[in-house]
Amino acid sequence: MAPKKVCIVGSGNWGSAIARLVGFNAERLPGRFEKNVSMWVFEEEVDGRKLTEIINTDHENVKYLPGRTLPKNIIAIPDIAEAAADADFLIFVLPHQFIKRACAPLIGKLKPGATGLSLVKGFAILPGGGIKLISDLISEEMGIPVSVLMGANLANEVADEKFCETTIGARDSEVGSDLKLLFQTENFRVTVVSDTQTVEICGALKNIVACAAGFCDGLKMGDNTKAATIRLGLKEMMKYGDTFYPGGNASTYFESCGVADLITTCYGGRNRRVSEAFVTRKKSIVDLETEMLNGQKLQGPETAAEVNYVLAAKGLEAEFPLFTAVHKICIGELQPEKLLDSLKNHPAHHLS
Fold it and tell me: Of the candidates 163, 316, 290, which has an alpha carbon nearest to the alpha carbon of residue 327?
């Protein structure tokens, strides 16, 4: 079997961290993967130099992952169609808001038999309202099967080779085996499950809970309250899965993509950090995103809005009080202090 070519679609903080793993494994497994890994980079200028030139010359993404070296076999390419040409595996790792526009040039151009892997956390918004899984969006747009990778994987810690775990959801066991080889290292341990939908919804919904955790921190509510927020958030994540994606496996929520990712995001992620600042600094989410995130996108408030649209349309807001409160706080309809009301009167506390 010919070695498989890999393309990384995206080059932000997480994309660059992943490039370190994928580049390392592609080089050490020449029988399974082509050595050179192409990485599509949205072209920007940094200190008068093109970002692709910096990556290919200095082997560092100085804007999004400064201070960490990228493998020399990661080749930055500004043209997405050129980057993806003849790729067997396409790893999508860019903000969910940009997928449709960025990937439009790939439609009808991919190699027959190509397969995708989405590392994108969030939901796609449907034109008439409602949401769709990102993997489904990519699959329908590109005409390829798409697996997912989600886990407790803060990008800078992955880049620093600190030990962590991740979860790959792949319906095809052979694809799952290939992807495990492509990503697993001594310090990045991979579990493969077939329950792709649950893996993916965890990656989106945990950002809503992280906003709630950030509000707790900003209000100095203490660790007990924050722990209750995380637990009730997990309950709502599981209920959402059961309601809208029935047939999933409850054990998937206890993989890295579920409870572990939820914990790390509620303590260390950008959604928590900006939500805390929203309370303490009294600025809008939009202003804080611009000020604090160096061009990265905040996903919790947008995901909360997308989910709320679905819940409101089905009359289910009262069954998901934490998700609902986060959305209303983010858009200014509710004061952060009112978050506690959603916790105190949560359906999880009612007798069944």
Answer: 316
